[in-house]
Write a structure and sequence with these properties.
Layout: E1 2-4, H1 15-20, E2 22-34, E3 38-39, E4 43-49, H2 51-59, E5 62-76, E6 84-108, E7 111-132, E8 139-144, E9 147-152, E10 158-164, E11 170-175, E12 182-187, H3 190-199, E13 201-210, E14 212-213, E15 215-228, H4 242-265
Parallel strand pairs: 7-11
Antiparallel strand pairs: 1-2, 2-15, 3-14, 4-13, 5-12, 5-15, 6-7, 8-9, 8-13, 10-11
Length: 266
């Protein structure tokens, strides 16, 4: 998939452009998105194919020259299947039960009476903040040609919200990952750019060095110029110059005059 930032319109070429041979210039972006869960050690290969774009320009009589190209990498890593750890926050003295005991006493007239009494039992309850965040550093490397781009989510956790589960337990949720927190870019070397323009193909390979990713995107930004293709002499039709036409005409008149003189002598 590619997006034209500045379109080339053949019908809009000016007369000066036709004379000079320069048609237009622009920036085109090709995108590769991978919406697949990849974890440490996984790899995925693919390629940018810009041959369709080059063929389109060729079909309308234009040659494409690359000025420069940039590779941009973006990634997203969620906190799925995150292990939980707790951190002590504070403690409360709370009633954890009620103790009841029974007793007897002399209630007079030689009788024994029975009674019951009780009192609350207190204990210490502990409150913990629960964090959700795997704490891992997610690193992706994309190789292409003689170059690499890479990105890492080595960022601190971001507080999201607190959920009160009960009177004693408060869960605090954290997440450090948002779209684009893995990003990198590099300008294509002369070798990689020439390799791309030679056949319109640039291969790449994603490798997850550590952690995991849920989706990755790679963008190829191509800055280019176009020129009108030179005319092939074999396809051109020779048009006689005006002087040549005049001489040819005089020659034909001379032949006709000579024929007339010869006919009169007979």
């Amino acid at each position: 998939m590619y997006k034209l930032q500045k379109n080339i319109i053949a019908a809009g070429l000016s007369s000066s452009a036709l004379v000079s041979g320069t048609a237009n210039a622009g920036l085109i972006t090709f995108e590769k998105s991978i919406d697949t869960y990849l974890s440490q050690g996984d790899s995925l290969s693919g390629s940018f194919d810009i041959s369709g774009f080059l063929d389109e320009q060729s079909d309308i009589g234009l040659d494409v020259t690359a000025n420069e190209a940039t590779i941009r990498l973006f990634g997203y890593s969620s906190e799925m299947e995150t292990p939980v750890y707790t951190q002590y926050a504070e403690s409360y003295r709370v009633q954890v039960g009620y103790y009841t005991y029974y007793y007897s006493y002399n209630c007079g007239w030689g009788r024994t009476c029975y009674g019951a009494a009780g009192y609350p039992v207190y204990g210490t309850e502990y409150v913990y903040n629960k964090y959700e965040g795997d704490g891992e550093t997610d690193v992706v490397i994309a190789d292409f040609g003689d170059q690499q781009v890479s990105g890492s989510t080595n960022n601190p956790d971001t507080y999201i919200n607190t959920v009160q589960e009960n009177r004693l337990l408060r869960n605090r949720y954290y997440d450090r990952n948002e779209w684009g927190d893995v990003s990198d870019s590099v300008m294509l070397s002369e070798f990689s750019l020439n390799d791309l323009m030679s056949d319109g193909i640039l291969d790449y390979n994603f490798t997850i060095d550590s952690g995991h990713f849920d989706s990755l995107s790679l963008f190829l930004d191509l800055d280019y110029d176009t020129k009108l293709k030179p005319v092939d002499p074999a396809d051109s039709v020779a048009v006689p110059e005006p002087g040549t036409l005049g001489l040819t005409g005089l020659g034909l008149l001379g032949i006709l005059a000579a024929r007339r003189k010869s006919a009169k002598k007979k």
